[in-house]
Amino acid sequence: MPTWFYPVLEGVIAFFLVAGGIFAFIGSLGLTHLKDFYMRLHGPSKTTTLGVGCVLMASMIYFRATTGHFSFQEMLITIFLFITAPATAHLLSKAALHQKLVADIRTRNVPDQLETASEPDEANAQQTESRLP
């Protein structure tokens, strides 16, 4: 490879590492700061998966540039991660629904039409409040 190409590769690798770190950080913040289980599920299943994928992409580019061989281990890890993370998130959400885990409806954005269309009576409101954590 020509010598001018190495700084370009280093820039691409640095971009993927920084992007992966940012995505992983945002996913971790979502996991710690969101209110209920259903909202917390999006942090690790979406952004953290993308963050780890970016880091693995940087690793594949680096080892291809330094050794000249394609790294199958990183490719297999990436494929495994992108297949299992959404499946795991789906199974976790189905298990939460099966256990009748109540979502924190106080933090949801409900359109005004829905709020005025079905005003709950006092007994239903107290029953809903008693189920919330």
UniProtKB/TrEMBL annotation:
<feature type="compositionally biased region" description="Polar residues">
    <location>
        <begin position="124"/>
        <end position="133"/>
    </location>
</feature>
<feature type="region of interest" description="Disordered">
    <location>
        <begin position="112"/>
        <end position="133"/>
    </location>
</feature>
<dbReference type="InterPro" id="IPR005133">
    <property type="entry name" value="PhaG_MnhG_YufB"/>
</dbReference>
<dbReference type="GO" id="GO:0015385">
    <property type="term" value="F:sodium:proton antiporter activity"/>
</dbReference>
<keyword id="KW-0472">Membrane</keyword>
<keyword id="KW-0812">Transmembrane</keyword>
<keyword id="KW-1133">Transmembrane helix</keyword>
<protein>
    <submittedName>
        <fullName>Na+/H+ antiporter subunit G</fullName>
    </submittedName>
</protein>
<dbReference type="Pfam" id="PF03334">
    <property type="entry name" value="PhaG_MnhG_YufB"/>
</dbReference>
<feature type="transmembrane region" description="Helical">
    <location>
        <begin position="75"/>
        <end position="92"/>
    </location>
</feature>
<feature type="transmembrane region" description="Helical">
    <location>
        <begin position="46"/>
        <end position="63"/>
    </location>
</feature>
<feature type="transmembrane region" description="Helical">
    <location>
        <begin position="12"/>
        <end position="34"/>
    </location>
</feature>
